[in-house]
Amino acid sequence: MTATLERSGPEPRTGPPALDVRGVSKVFGTGRDAVVALDGVDLAVAPGEFVCLLGASGCGKSTLLNLVAGLDRPTSGTVETTAARPAVMFQEAALLPWLDAGRNVELPLRLAGIGRAQRRERAKELLALVRLEGQAEKRPHELSGGMRQRVALARALAAATGLGGEGKSREEAGVLLMDEPFGALDAITRDVLQAELLRVWEATGTTVLFVTHDVRESVRLAERVVLLSSRPGRVVREWATAGADDAEELHGDITGELREVISAHGR
Amino acid sequence: MAADSTATVDDAVDVGRGLDALDTPTEQRVPLWKRFLTGVVPPIVAVVLFVVVWQILWASAIWPEFKLPSPEAVFGTIGQDFAEGRALDIIWTSISRAILGFLLAVVVATPLGLLVATVPIVRSAIGPILTGLQSLPSVAWVPAAVLWFGLTDATIYFVVLMGAVPSIANGLVSGIDQVPPLLPRVGFAMGASRSQSARLIMLPAALPGFLGGLKQGWAFSWRSLMAAEIIATSPSLGFGLGAYLNEGQSLSDMPSVMAAILLILIVGIGVELLFFRPAEVRVLRARGLGTGP
Question: Which among B40, B157, B192, B219 would be 20 to 30 A from A52, CA to CA?
């Protein structure tokens, strides 16, 4: 019973994609110093889908995530999303150190102008979802790295789904963008958090775009792995993990292709 | 994959809870008597030692009495001033001015600091001047202020402002500079508007640096006030600690001079211990930052 095999398989997904990236290019700088970070990237993510963006460092995967998050603008191309505002989670938890865990989770709701009682209730729900019940009054420095990252996950979910509520369609379940969120954690904690993330994803039906350079992580988590090349970043190939009967073989496949992409730069 | 294919969901939950329990930082609370022993006793011992050395030096009569009075004479002067009710008047005159001057400085320095921290052109224009002003002793402003404003309260407040504003503004600037850039980014990603970001993220994040600036600003207000009071004396200016010190000098009354110095010191330390230290400890402790003993 692994979290990956346990998954009930992707339901047929219809309707417009939750995330639609079309012909997106991003150039930093101008003239001779210009660096093409992304070049004509197309990527559509269905509502409720879990997609991993895989690539070596410098492949512009974080750049792409920032574009989708609206933290930066593409040089050309369009980014469309059904979510009003995709939520972002970074490698660092980036909790506000003067607020306790509960108030950190409440913050996006507070920014959206939701009343105190309602947002407190929702924060409690979300903290329970990431198994931090009763920790709402702890300050970030009183929590371990893994717990902090779970608070950040709860906060991102608050940002993505607002007050949530029953009977919401997949389109309303929000979009979660994750930029190597477990990169700074130790191996055991990372393993536990990956399982937690899958559980939360199944429970909420949120659309996830997850950036990583770890092939094993991408195979374990995603339904679809998208490999980006480096400088300029282009979509090289993608794999569906559900169709693969042998995870090890898929892992070998993807690693081989990734090594090929990287060594192309050494020649 | 093999490891988690055998693990049941319950196991995973247990591992998660175990990690939480193991990795949670433990905070050791120092017992009250120990904090008393390490925090309160040493300074008291130091003061007592200082008075003892003073007493010995006085008793050995190396210097004449008018240069080094006995501790008894100095404390006697302070006691007498208090008994006559004069001391409280003098102290209040100075403290009320210092507080008013300090508050004025906060009102001027806060928007100034915000402007310097957030508008690049303002920073490059007046940032260096602001830093330079910090190293200019505010006594230097007294003659100019006397010529501009005469012997009025305006002179005193002007000198206090020139002393305190640069410290407070610079404290706010460095507080804002030290905010990790990820925090405003996270705020923006969560949909914070500019004013929300300033109010709910940048200002609280800059609070420790701002508080440091306020603390230094208070010290500079107090110093500048004393400088102004010592130099600019006039019946129209009231009788504060600086004037008291100046009077002691002109009467060659060494016990009064030393009493005045002691009172100036005690007020300065007292305000720091009563207001700034507790505020700082609260702010830093809430963020899990070191607070010292």
Answer: B192
What is the average pLDDT across B134-160?
90
Distance (Å, whole) CA B286 – CA B18? 26
The crossing angle, in degrees rounded to 10, of helices A145-161 and A116-129 is 130
CB < 8 Å to A103, chain B = none
A189 and A263 belong to one structural domain: yes
Domain count for chain A, please give it: 2
- If residue A42 lies in a helix (H) or strand (E), which one and from where to where? strand A35-45
> What is the average per-residue pLDDT within B96-103?
93
Least reliable range by pLDDT among A193-202, B19-28, B104-113: B19-28
Residue type, A46: A
Strands (E), A50-132: 50-54, 76-81, 87-89
- Give pTM, 2 decimals: 0.77
For B19, which of A1, A85, A189 is closest by C-beta distance?
Answer: A189
Are residues A82 and A185 both part of a single domain?
A: yes
Of the residues A107, A110, A139, A198, the best mutation for testing chain B's interface (the one with the most B CB atoms within 10 Å of its CB) is: A107
Residue A74 lies in a domain: yes
Cβ density class B121-145: b for 16+ within 10 Å, e for less:
eebeebbeebeebbeeebbebbeeb
Q: Which domain holds residue A60?
A: 12-86+174-267
Which of A119, A191, A221 is the best residue to mutate to test the B interface, defined by the most B CB atoms within 10 Å of its own CB? A191
* Rg for chain A, CA atoms, rounded: 18
Going by DSSP bridges, is the β-strand pair A76-81/A19-28 parallel, antiparallel, or unpaired?
antiparallel
Q: Supply the angle between the helices A116-129 and A101-111 in degrees, to the nearest 10.
A: 130
User: In terms of Cα–Cα distance, which of A136, A86, A92, A90 is closest to A108?
Assistant: A86
Residue A59 lies in a domain: yes
B97 exposed, middle or buried (CB, 10 Å; 0-12, 13-18, 19+)?
Answer: buried
Residues A194 and A82 in one domain: yes
* Residues A233, A54 contacting (CB under 8 angstroms): no
Gap from B150 CA to chain A (nearest CA, Å): 47
- pLDDT value of residue B3: 45
Q: Which of A184, A43, B179 is nearest to A52 (CA)?
A: A43
Q: What is the ipTM of this complex?
A: 0.78
Are residue A180 and residue A155 in the same domain, yes or no? no
One domain for residues A16 and A119: no
Decide: helix, strand or coil at residue A19: strand
**Helical H runs in chain A?**
3-6, 61-69, 101-111, 116-129, 145-161, 187-204, 215-221, 247-263
* Residue that is written with structure tokens 């995530």 in the block: A65
A135 and A148 part of one domain: yes
In angstroms, the CA B286 to CA B278 distance is 12
Whether B288 and A108 lie within 8 Å, measured CB to CB: no
